[in-house]
Amino acid sequence: MSIKVALLGFGGIARSHFRGYEKIMAENSDVKLVAICDINPVRFEIAQSINIDTGKAKFDLTGINLYNNVYDMLEKEEIDMVDICLPTYLHAEYTIEMLKAGKHVMCEKPMALSSEQCREMIETARAEGKKLMIGQCLRFEPMYLCLKEFVDTGVFGKVNYAFFDRISALPKWGYKDWFRSTRHSGGCALDLHIHDVDMVRFLFGEPDSVSSVAQNATVKWQLINSRFNYKDIPVVIATGSWSASPLSSFKMSYRVGFEKAEVILDGGKVTVYPMDNSINDGQSYVVDLPDKARMAEEIKYFISTFAYGKENVTNTPESALASVELVEKLRRSADEGGIII
Prior knowledge:
Shape: globular
Mean pLDDT: 94
Distance between the termini: 49 Å
Largest sheet: 8 strands, mixed
Number of strands: 14
Strand content: 15-25%
Strand order of the largest sheet: 8-9-10-7-11-12-13-14
Number of helices: 10
CATH topology of the largest domain: Dihydrodipicolinate Reductase, domain 2
Low-confidence stretches: none
């Protein structure tokens, strides 16, 4: 079986997707990235730095057909799947077009600018009989999957509190500075904070209610602090920020307190701090995580849903829609003075 993939957009996040395909193709000869399309031809000549990877990487595009027009690409290439890495305001439009063109679609997060657009994307996928998945990549990240295991198995007892942080300067990359336009990006709340909003849902289920406060600066909801209310977890709070200094580096972290241990992600490692001697003789330890790249794992998982008949139980488009709906509630709360919704 030959699975041919096209990458639509070759800006910031697409570099991570490209690295994922490099890894996948080295492991599986059935998968081939055959084409990349970007409206800006300069994208194929430079390495685009983003907050999660500031190195000047070089890309080997040998054997990949490059396009500046998506319709030329569709006409000339035989493609099974399109991986959409376009700005958020183009997600719904091009996802729907690619589905109608008979392609399976993986689209970067957030799913779309509004829950209404998300629902249209899902309805189109169903009508066309094609698979759709959204790039909520933390669901495939070992640093978060170990936390999911701790929660689900109850190995450390019930959760008493959970704090999540995702902190960055206002993005300086992006086609025509689209991140810096609220109507194009949805602010930090939709673009960055949605990672932790989605993870809270993935870990603990749907909250009973939510509230948030926000700072509005260059864009609305440039910094947002959200509280998720659960009957059985006293405190669940997440902060997303695009208000950090441009001189500081991107940081993601969490601190989750269980009955028997505290689990902390900091500096790219997960450490367990026992509350008593029943866990590791009371000594802290760093969790031994599998050497897996979240982007490659995410892509492989999606391919398995249409190429090998695997059911998508980990990252459905309906769940991605629910995360966008929850962000909409959080933004409304912030706009109305932190009311509980």
